[in-house]
């Protein structure tokens, strides 16, 4: 007899990670497909990680005690409001498992983070996808209209991955006030630190019993390879996430690196400021070339390409730039991570040669 796999698992969409960078004609190779921070670890962070590796024969602190205390102090919240996991996406999976199941609905904008359909389907719930506005941002009014008696959770991605815009704070606050209190609202702020728009959403200020913020050390803090993310929410919600999460998930070196990164935050945010400058260069350059690129409050830009998406992606790859094409119609396009200055200037040189 063959083992029976749950239908929700057997038919789950495949998450496609960014491909390795190709080598261009001049030996150039830049991976711009995974929104990674291009800067190497700071010496202090690396030293803390190496010291932690000397204790790799021991289990990590399952409660993430030191990291949780540091985060609580930094954010001005209680330690009982924080749940740490292996990246914000793992925290999302745990939270959805805690609040949604068969027969329920989870609403989220689309296009948005590729992991959302997978996370929802694994709970047995049904995805309700609401198209973005023409400016590639969320349509909060349409999301509110999609709420039904079966709705258990709503995902808001700000800044939105892969299109870039951030949700307006006052609009999101009004939206939350209008949604029934029994529905869990999850604000995914993985790219929070890259935002500069004055009216961008400030998720921490909106946390309440049915609203939680997801954050990560993968992007601005440059710890993508260690997988550390966290939730800030109501103590009951944070406790549910901790209860559902796998024991000992965040490794000893990962916890040490995250704590050291918080201590080195000023240096790390200097790097973020440089990436923001480079983002402006790429955005302005693409627009000067005639591309209708939406605003980005993240460490990537979205290049709408329609039926030319695969063609454009191949052109970037031929020059040694691996980007992230999304070929689904009608919103096909390419997400391009803001990388090293040399990579960003090569993006514009390739873009200048692209057919329109």
UniProtKB/TrEMBL annotation:
<dbReference type="InterPro" id="IPR015421">
    <property type="entry name" value="PyrdxlP-dep_Trfase_major"/>
</dbReference>
<comment type="function">
    <text>Aminotransferase that catalyzes the conversion of aromatic amino acids and 2-oxoglutarate into corresponding aromatic oxo acids and L-glutamate.</text>
</comment>
<feature type="domain" description="Aminotransferase class I/classII large">
    <location>
        <begin position="30"/>
        <end position="341"/>
    </location>
</feature>
<feature type="modified residue" description="N6-(pyridoxal phosphate)lysine">
    <location>
        <position position="219"/>
    </location>
</feature>
<dbReference type="InterPro" id="IPR001917">
    <property type="entry name" value="Aminotrans_II_pyridoxalP_BS"/>
</dbReference>
<dbReference type="InterPro" id="IPR050106">
    <property type="entry name" value="HistidinolP_aminotransfase"/>
</dbReference>
<dbReference type="InterPro" id="IPR005861">
    <property type="entry name" value="HisP_aminotrans"/>
</dbReference>
<keyword id="KW-0663">Pyridoxal phosphate</keyword>
<dbReference type="GO" id="GO:0000105">
    <property type="term" value="P:L-histidine biosynthetic process"/>
</dbReference>
<comment type="subunit">
    <text>Homodimer.</text>
</comment>
<keyword id="KW-0032">Aminotransferase</keyword>
<dbReference type="GO" id="GO:0004400">
    <property type="term" value="F:histidinol-phosphate transaminase activity"/>
</dbReference>
<dbReference type="GO" id="GO:0008793">
    <property type="term" value="F:aromatic-amino-acid transaminase activity"/>
</dbReference>
<comment type="similarity">
    <text>Belongs to the class-II pyridoxal-phosphate-dependent aminotransferase family.</text>
</comment>
<dbReference type="GO" id="GO:0030170">
    <property type="term" value="F:pyridoxal phosphate binding"/>
</dbReference>
<dbReference type="InterPro" id="IPR004839">
    <property type="entry name" value="Aminotransferase_I/II_large"/>
</dbReference>
<dbReference type="InterPro" id="IPR015424">
    <property type="entry name" value="PyrdxlP-dep_Trfase"/>
</dbReference>
<keyword id="KW-0808">Transferase</keyword>
<dbReference type="InterPro" id="IPR024892">
    <property type="entry name" value="ArAT"/>
</dbReference>
<protein>
    <recommendedName>
        <fullName>Aromatic amino acid aminotransferase</fullName>
        <ecNumber>2.6.1.57</ecNumber>
    </recommendedName>
</protein>
<dbReference type="Pfam" id="PF00155">
    <property type="entry name" value="Aminotran_1_2"/>
</dbReference>
<dbReference type="InterPro" id="IPR015422">
    <property type="entry name" value="PyrdxlP-dep_Trfase_small"/>
</dbReference>
